[in-house]
Specification:
The complex is a heterodimer. Helix content of chain A is 0%, strand content 49%. Chain A is built from no helices and 11 strands. In chain A, strands 2, 4, 5, 6, 9, 10 and 11 form a 7-stranded mixed sheet that branches. In chain A, strands 1-3-8-7 form a 4-stranded antiparallel sheet, with no helix packed on it. Chain A starts with a strand and ends with a strand. In chain A, 41% of the residues are buried. Chain B is built from no helices and 10 strands. In chain B, strands 2, 4, 5, 6, 8, 9 and 10 form a 7-stranded mixed sheet that branches. The chains are: A mainly beta, B mainly beta.
């Protein structure tokens, strides 16, 4: 059974940093791109960014709203994807979901077939 | 960046009725790169449709998707109480994904 479990959320002050983790199990983690999606309270879904599998170079891409502040990385030996969030702002307050790219044979994840339950990040003084 | 606009904002129908949800893109989207998700209250989103019309594993056949270019549709042929949720369309293009703002489906 495919499972994604996020952790690391919490309350953080504006301008500070936080690192989220997503542990994957039940599939060959290294073969899949991993994507982060967030949802502000009462709002819709917002794509944050993804990291390709090493098979496709392992590079990451980001939404304009987080580029330069957020960094996605992965440790395939531990089956973990990370989201390092720096210079956090109140607008970053959201539930952060980790998702798996649905097509392991694709360069980029163009749909998301499994989602974690999310971890809440609150940015407030 | 491609903007997806979903309509209506809220759909209120009786059980057994047909629900038609629209997703319009600001630029043409490849049918390969259009997906639909269902999010029930308090839950993570769930993949319903990918490639504009392919149902994901375990999705009932009352859910169907169609469309091309800039206009895509999700149809629930016979609405059931457990279909109460917010539905999102999502597209991918040039290493960027975007979601529509969602359509809320309610039962009368």
């Amino acid at each position: 059974e495919v499972q994604l479990v996020e952790s690391g959320g919490g309350l953080v002050q504006p301008g500070r940093s936080l690192k989220l983790s997503c542990i994957g199990s039940g599939f060959t983690f290294g073969d899949y791109a991993m994507t982060w999606v967030r949802q502000a309270p009462g709002k819709g879904l917002e794509w944050v960014g993804f990291i390709r599998s090493k098979n496709y170079g392992g590079a990451a891409e980001y939404a304009a709203s987080v580029k330069g502040r957020f960094t996605i990385s992965r440790d395939d030996s531990q089956t973990i994807a990370y989201l390092q969030m720096d210079s956090l702002q109140s607008e970053d307050t959201a539930v952060y979901y980790c998702t798996r790219g649905g097509d392991r044979n694709s360069w980029d994840p163009y749909f998301f077939d499994y989602w974690g339950q999310g971890t809440l990040v609150t940015v407030s003084s | 960046e491609i903007v997806l606009t979903q309509s209506p904002g809220t759909l209120s129908l009786s059980p057994g009725e047909r629900a038609t949800l629209s997703c319009r893109a600001s630029q043409s989207v490849s049918i390969t790169y259009l997906a639909w998700y269902q999010q029930k209250p308090g839950q993570a989103p769930r993949l319903l449709i990918y490639g504009a019309s392919t149902r994901a594993t375990g999705i009932p056949d009352r859910f169907s998707g169609r469309g091309s270019g800039t206009d895509f549709t999700l149809t629930i042929s016979r609405l059931e109480p457990e279909d109460v949720a917010v539905y999102y369309c999502q597209q991918y293009g040039s290493s960027v994904s975007t979601f529509g703002q969602g359509t809320r489906v309610e039962i009368k």
